[in-house]
């Protein structure tokens, strides 16, 4: 019903006819109709302007929020990059430490092999010497 009333008030000739039907003289009915139509047009224009202002305000708020979010994302991305670089540096240092320990361990193995070889040779030499001396004195 509200929609039909709005349509009736926006139609100046319908308003004039209705007023005339209620006994209002034609000139007065036309003047009242013109006034109502003018007021409704001004209200509509005012509403349109307010709607545009609200829409622009909303758009600028959304843009500002998007920009804040983008800046926050950039900070988070930069923080993650820094954390990754730090982790990569720590990983490189760990790899270097492992490689150094591997070299030290290999050197220790070679040293142990040399010592064991010398011990074995010394033992063989000693056994041979004891055997030779025991034959010599027997």
Short description:
With 138 residues, this protein is an all-alpha fold. It contains three helices and no strands.
Principal-axes shape call: rod-shaped
| Range of helix content | over 70%
One letter per element, helices H and strands E, the order comes to HHH
Structural domain count: 1
The whole-angstrom Rg is 51 Å
Q: Structural class of the helices, strands and pairings?
A: mainly alpha
Describe this structure in words.
This protein has three helices and no strands. It is an all-alpha fold. The protein has one domain. Residues 1-9 have low confidence and may be disordered. Keywords: Coiled coil, Membrane, Mitochondrion, Transmembrane, Transmembrane helix.
Give the helices and strands, then pairings:
Elements: H1 2-10, H2 12-21, H3 26-136
Helix pairs in contact: 2-3
Essential attributes:
mainly alpha; transmembrane
């Amino acid at each position: 019903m509200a929609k039909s009333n709005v349509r009736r008030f926006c139609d100046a000739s319908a308003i004039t006819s209705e007023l005339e039907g209620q006994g209002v003289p034609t000139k007065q009915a036309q003047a009242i109709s013109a006034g109502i139509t003018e007021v409704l047009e001004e209200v509509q224009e005012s509403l349109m302007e307010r709607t545009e202002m609200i829409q622009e305000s909303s758009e600028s708020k959304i843009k500002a929020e998007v920009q804040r979010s983008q800046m926050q994302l950039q900070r988070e991305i930069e923080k993650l990059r820094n954390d990754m670089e730090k982790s990569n540096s720590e990983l490189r240092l760990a790899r270097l430490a492992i490689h150094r320990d591997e070299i030290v361990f290999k050197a220790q193995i070679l040293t142990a092999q040399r010592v064991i070889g010398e011990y074995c040779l010394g033992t063989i030499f000693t056994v041979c010497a004891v055997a030779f001396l025991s034959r010599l004195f027997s």
